[in-house]
Amino acid sequence: MRVYNTLGRKIEEFTPINDKEVKIYCCGPTVYDFPHIGNLRAFIFYDIIRRTLLYNGFRVKQIMNITDVDDKTIKNSKLRGMELSEYTKIYTDAFFEDLKKLNISEFEGYPRATQSIGAMETMITGLLSKGYAYKSNDGIYYSVSKFKDYGKLSGMSLKETKSRIQNDEYDKDSAADFALWKTWTPDDGDVYWENDLPKGRPGWSIECSAMVFKNLGESIDIHAGGIDLIFPHHENEIAQSEAFTGKRFVKYWLHSEHLLVNGKKMSKSLHNFYTLRDLEKLGFDVIAFRLLVLDSHYRSKINFTLDILKKYEKTLDDIDITLKSYEKLPKGNKKGHEEVISEILNEFKKSINNDFDTHEAIKNFFMLIELLNEDIKSGSTDNESSEAAMLAVQKMDSILGVIDRYSVPDEVIKLAEERSKLRDSNDWAGADLIRNKIKEKGFKVIDLFGSNYTIIKNRQHGN
Ligand SMILES: [Zn+2]
Q: How many angstroms separate the CA atoms of 463 and 448, rounded?
């Protein structure tokens, strides 16, 4: 496997620190609102990292944090008159629902910031005693100039980082210094901890470093996030962690690109801001969003539009119909596709192993689907080809995760059986009545060859 390491900005051969288990940390959501589809793009990428490693036989320990205390969660919970934990639970639950809907695999853990305060205190205390951190009136800050490698991930010099951060309202020695701990203010209400450190709460970046340290250890293989996290978040994580342990924090830094909507950065004021719930309300199959994301390389920008999403939804329906037809195809004279199929599968593996190139991998997947369509047109396949094809589909989908999107309710299956019988007895009017009943239930019957049929969802989009 080859991966693009943001640290060093080049493609490298992937060799884990410990060949028995790959340790991965992914920056998760701040649970102050529903994730938007740009956040979800990063989460889908985390899933692809996992699935690709498993495909290659690695064992994986992967965690994604949940930031459930920060300025925004505190502010919004107060506005709604709710306890912080009560408020963040709403969006934590929503986040897990979204993961499930997008067929994102379950990871080994989802540590919460509020349940990892002890590890943060240990790190901050250590950084204070080593001289990397200092106390001021409003908190404890990390002294960026003390860490000589600061800027090695983002490629920014200390001078540049200072000009990027114009913040005079805090009491710190240098503009680039960042808060490890924020002293309690009345605005924080009952959100504070006071054990080893003054009454207060953690800064953002220390949360991730401490959760890596607590759950995965001092050095890990992969740390992933969206590209906007490179600076300052991940730069700060490196500074804190490496100053604290004296060891290399992360071997491979992986970052996924932005998702634009109608060519622009998403923002609520531009009305181009979507959550998964918005897409569902518009009647979309959210797995079409997964396919749309995977059809671009994770390091390319994606331009999302509803029309493009519709196209992917149609593609998924077509794939469904092909697979259903192919399953029912009579097995006749030998077609001998096994070799072509195994070649396509090899190319697929090469693509995903080439820096998770799902764009190329999907081309291979479509090539296979096309081959099946040719057989369907010709009216038959053979046992060997069929077995090879089904195995290839299964293996490819163990990465892509776009097949088996929903199950059809029993009552709809029964109606379709009834309709099929009526058609066999040439009762076309009766069959049409049932077709409409099925439509009312949100599905439609697609007739294949002979008396075969399949049932797919009947999509209707509002805009
Ligand atoms: Zn993070």
A: 31
117-163 residue pLDDT tens: 999 999 999 999 999 999 999 999 999 999 999 999 999 877 776 66
How far apart are the CA of 65 and the centre of ligand 1, in A? 7
What's the CA gap between 242 and 374, in Å, rounded?
57
- The set of residues, in sequence order, having a beta carbon less than 8 Å from that of 236 and lying 6+ positions away, is 142, 178, 205
Token output for 401: 């995760």
The Cα–Cα gap between 311 and 288 comes to 8
Distance 71 CA to ligand 1 centre (A): 15
Q: Domain map of the chain by residue range? A: 2-256, 276-400, 410-457
Q: What is the assigned CATH class of domain 2-256?
A: alpha beta
Closest CA to 206 of 227, 185, 181, 177: 181
Contact 416, 447 (CB under 8 A): no
Q: How many Å lie between the centroid of ligand 1 and the Cα of residue 29?
A: 9
Q: For the chain, state the CA radius of gyration.
A: 26
Q: Mapped to the 3 state alphabet, what secondary structure does 164-223 carry? A: HCCCCCCCCCCCCCEEEEEECCHHHCCCCECCCCCCEEECHHHHHHHHHHHHCCCCEEEE
Q: Count the neighbouring beta carbons within 10 Å of the beta carbon of residue 398.
A: 12
Q: What does pTM read for this prediction?
A: 0.95
Q: 356 Cβ partners below 8 Å, 6+ apart?
A: 3, 45, 48, 49, 52, 297, 298
Structural tokens at position 159: 């001078």
Residue 424 is encoded by which pair of tokens?
């066999």
Cα 63 to averaged position of ligand 1 atoms, centre (Å): 11
Neighbours of 308 (CB within 10 A): 14
- What is the per-residue pLDDT across 362-416, written as a single tens digit (0 to 9) for each? 999 999 999 999 999 999 999 999 999 999 999 999 999 999 888 999 999 999 9
The rounded distance, in Å, linking the Cα atoms of 283 and 49 is: 29
Ligand 1 midpoint to CA 27 (Å): 4
Q: Phi first, then psi: what are they for 348, rounded to 5°? A: -60, -50
Q: What burial class does residue 69 get, using C-beta atoms within 10 Å of its C-beta: 0-12 exposed, 13-18 middle, 19+ buried? A: buried
**231 vs 249: CA distance, rounded Å:** 16
What's the gap in Å between 28 CA and the centre of ligand 1? Answer: 7
Provide the 10 A C-beta neighbour count for residue 117.
19
29-to-36, 90, 239 alpha-carbon distances in Å: 10, 13, 22
- 284 close to 277: Cβ distance less than 8 angstroms: no
